[in-house]
Amino acid sequence: MSSVHNKLSIFALGGVGEIGKNMYVLQYEDDIIVIDCGSKFPDEDLPGIDLIVPDITYLLENRDKVRALILTHGHEDHIGGLPYIYKQLRMPIYGTKLTLGLVEGKLREANLLKEAELTVITPESDIQLGTVSVSFFKTNHSIPDCLGIVFQTNEGTVVHTGDFKFDLTPVSEEAADLHRMAEIGKNGVLALLSESTNAERVGFTPSERKVGVHLEEIMRKARQKVFIATFASNVHRLQQVIDAADSMNRKVALIGRSMVNVVTIAKELGYLQAREEIFIEPGDVHKYPADRVAVLCTGSQGEPMAALSRLARNNHRQVEVLRGDTVVISATPIPGNERNLSRTVDDLFKLGANVIYGPGSATGVHVSGHGSQEELKLMLHLMRPKYFIPIHGEYRMLHQHRLLAEAVGVDQDHIFIVENGDVVAFQNGEARLAGKVPSGRTLVDGLGIGDIGNIVLRDRRSLSQDGILIVIITINKSHGTILSGPDMVSRGFVYIRESEGLLEQANEVVVASIAKFQEDNMKQWRLLKQLVKENLGKFLYERTKRRPMILPIIVEV
Amino acid sequence: MSSVHNKLSIFALGGVGEIGKNMYVLQYEDDIIVIDCGSKFPDEDLPGIDLIVPDITYLLENRDKVRALILTHGHEDHIGGLPYIYKQLRMPIYGTKLTLGLVEGKLREANLLKEAELTVITPESDIQLGTVSVSFFKTNHSIPDCLGIVFQTNEGTVVHTGDFKFDLTPVSEEAADLHRMAEIGKNGVLALLSESTNAERVGFTPSERKVGVHLEEIMRKARQKVFIATFASNVHRLQQVIDAADSMNRKVALIGRSMVNVVTIAKELGYLQAREEIFIEPGDVHKYPADRVAVLCTGSQGEPMAALSRLARNNHRQVEVLRGDTVVISATPIPGNERNLSRTVDDLFKLGANVIYGPGSATGVHVSGHGSQEELKLMLHLMRPKYFIPIHGEYRMLHQHRLLAEAVGVDQDHIFIVENGDVVAFQNGEARLAGKVPSGRTLVDGLGIGDIGNIVLRDRRSLSQDGILIVIITINKSHGTILSGPDMVSRGFVYIRESEGLLEQANEVVVASIAKFQEDNMKQWRLLKQLVKENLGKFLYERTKRRPMILPIIVEV
């Protein structure tokens, strides 16, 4: 695989046709700029896999051209792949102060921080990467310090929005920079890449500030402890919880590793304002009157090992949820997490807590960090792009975003819904699809990165369905006679004590297969294995309607 | 385990603390009446399991007292366990015409129909089961022919609502019988068991009739084929689709086994009115102009093998979804099905279809079959029960239903939130919790009912995470010397060709363990197995951060 040969190429290595593992690439001649380096959690069809990161084959094969990785913000689906990818690519990294603060922690843990070349950028930065001039614009999102990116090339200007909403009354930060965006649009945008997460949602996403009002109200009314579970990275949300607690004269305890981690970094870097004396240790919660305490914790997705789930199972060493306490789920479950979160809510109700949960639109304790349809149209209006590539979303979201772009006047033929790896090439102001670069998912399992392939996964899935039955036949190497066996061992198939009759008969099936093998004067052990597999598989399916993996092993002595 | 010894006892064997496998029991002295016999699909924490049905240990131990099974309606979570349970219990079965029509199909498939004693009931029926008089009242739901049940005992009257909503403008059936319910309430209700599915939802569930208006509008506007995916059992919905198609001069094709099955039964029994000539075979769809066809299909939950998913993957033998076709998802995903359904919607958009999906409140093409908070309060008001047991729901739903009951004036101490198996006993008009009967889930896997236990499940889960590594050591039976091995075989752990170095070193770890075993003059092979497991486990975790199941097998020759 060589490099693509267009003047200007744009493609995704992750993030289109999916939510997660965002990685986009802009290549102008011999200059490659990578945008974001995210990770994604596996579905249940990838048993045992810890994490998914983008396949960076293309970047490795063109590593001499990679000028930089630019990070739009510090969410896991934009920086979570960094330790794995950096180990292989060692590219210079650009990001805002908070983003790099979070990245540093990741690289330190992976023992990669010392060698990393990190450059802090601001919305005002202007950098030159090879022949490409790169500048930025401020956006709003559910983590501070987010950027959109403007690439100026000799072919024209390309804009990447990052994740965004338009928060016109933001919490402790500036609103998205409408004037700068207007200016960019005025100067002409060849192509816009804009995020599509909420493209299915009508209207305008409410301001983060709305949440604060509800949180304060809840803390005012509560007569005992108030627990608030939210994403640790939502620093504005944390700020509002702390402010509400402070105004209601409650101390704040932090529970959950990432909560402590983010609060520490955000305070250090000036993104979180709080009097030091407001914080108390979880171990000291019991020392305060219940109506003088608020607890900020992780686990808003019902993750079984996170703080809130442990609290709900009454399984936390230091803090207890008691009858009459209030628990606020300040988040919406990500698809796939609904059942875990429901279980956590059930457990909290069983403890007698008053739980505030459900869609943010009903409870007021959560708003999305992503712009809804009106905001996506606003971005399209401001940028007035000639070409539009919806990114950051599953297909139906990209599709809805396309409809929005058409509605605001983008030429239907100028909209490209791409898959990961599809190259959009630009020449003389015209765009076309120009082939594919390698793309896909790299699976992380323990220390292994990309070493788990389809065969291993297929085996894991198969093992999980009906288990395994191992048949061991020992033969004499020189005479080819059967010395021992068949011995059978099963795991995950049937409970032995209850099914001895079955396994005895299975044994007879194997014995008969061996007899047939010898009778027919067959020689290759491969054929015996085949015979055992077939006969035993058939017998077991008839008797149980199950299909365990059958693994005949021939031991030569 | 003997029988419970209260005058009147009520308990659930399935359906509280969960959605699914409904089964409730009323016992008056020596007369046991069972209500419903549902099944439930397993979560991902039950790998390989096909179905879950209630544990009926109590009923088997008291089978001489079981007078009848009464079915409230024909949904799977109320009748799906029947073939498995009937095989063991052989009890007389009561249900309405449509419910028994669906039951007959199930029993026929399981070769149990001939011996089954089925009695058709109507809302006007009045039956005597032992000392208990049983009557009924008509309700509305997302399947026709639903009943609530009234049990008259010498201790007082007990009412079980079944699943219900109040549809005041129902489609081709009567509205729920408010007058009869009012009369029951007036005569005094000792205990009400009422369903809680939508107890978290404010307001009043819209009438089924609202859907028809939208369906007709969609068929009017569509210039090509219209596909409607919905639950086959929702006969009123099917009726509305057929009516809309008929009025728009479209023929109707049915795709999906259960769709064909339900339409056949419902027509036969008079629950579905349609001119015979409106139906066409799927294979004939292509013979009609695209704007003269509607397709009713299964798969509204995105089930990978159902009709809609096959159509979306362009994988149906007879019918194709073409660019410009309209697809209506006339259902809401059940929690856990969201991702599958999203994938199906993505695939349909990729085919160029216009897909109408999302919450029924937004699209108008779906309404729930369960009453919302105002309807649950209405039922509580009508029945004016002395005691209230919320049923049919996960804990938070039961909890919200309790709050509704308190709000309409039921005494807080007279509300029992129970778990499956908890017995509520009544004597002299007073209720109390009175111990537990055996309850739990019986797992169906292939032909096995209840033979899969925790060990097998734990092994399946473990195998699915990091696979298995089998280590075979062959020893001489008489001398105790090692003849061969260690031989190692792995499945689902690592891909062999890429990890030979690792497995070679693992082999050395085993060899060293054997040497240590012999050096220390240990004799029991059990100890060698233990040693190999420990040393190999430690080595592999250090090297890979994975924990495959390690299975040492010693073959004696």
From TrEMBL, chains A, B:
Query: Which GO-annotated molecular functions does the record name?
Result: 5'-3' RNA exonuclease activity; RNA binding; RNA endonuclease activity; zinc ion binding
Q: Which InterPro entries would you find in this protein's record?
A: Metallo-B-lactamas (IPR001279), RibonucZ/Hydroxyglut_hydro (IPR036866), RMMBL (IPR011108), RNase_J (IPR004613), RNase_J_2 (IPR042173), RNase_J_b_CASP (IPR055132), RNase_J_bac (IPR030854), RNase_J_C (IPR041636)
Q: Which residues form the active site?
A: E195, H370
Q: Which domain of life is it from?
A: Bacteria
> Does the record carry Repeat as a key word?
no
Its GO biological process annotations read: rRNA processing
Provide one Gene Ontology cellular component.
cytoplasm
Q: Where in the cell is it found?
A: Cytoplasm
Quote the record's binding site residues for substrate. Answer: A232, S233, N234, H366, V367, S368, G369, H370
Annotated Gene3D superfamilies: 3.10.20.580, Metallo-hydrolase/oxidoreductase, Ribonuclease Z/Hydroxyacylglutathione hydrolase-like
Q: Which cofactor does it need?
A: Ca(2+); Zn(2+)
Q: Which UniProt keywords apply?
A: Calcium, Cytoplasm, Endonuclease, Exonuclease, Hydrolase, Metal-binding, Nuclease, RNA-binding, rRNA processing, Zinc
List the EC numbers from the record. Answer: 3.1.-.-
Q: Which residues form the Metallo-beta-lactamase domain?
A: 20-215
Q: What is the enzyme's main class?
A: hydrolase
Q: What Pfam families does the annotation carry? A: Lactamase_B, RMMBL, RNase_J_b_CASP, RNase_J_C
Q: Which residues bind Zn(2+) 2?
A: H78
**Reactions performed catalytically:** 3',5'-cyclic UMP + H2O = UMP + H(+); 3',5'-cyclic CMP + H2O = CMP + H(+)
For this chain's record, the cofactor binding note is: Binds 1 Ca(2+) cation per subunit. Seen in 1 crystal structure, it is not clear if it is physiologically important.
Where Zn(2+) 1 is bound, by residue? Answer: H73, H75, D77, H141, D163, H392
Q: How does it assemble?
A: Homodimer, may be a subunit of the RNA degradosome.
Biological role: Counteracts the endogenous Pycsar antiviral defense system. Phosphodiesterase that enables metal-dependent hydrolysis of host cyclic nucleotide Pycsar defense signals such as cCMP and cUMP.
Please identify the protein, giving its name as recorded: Ribonuclease J
Lineage of origin = Bacteria, Bacillati, Bacillota, Bacilli, Bacillales
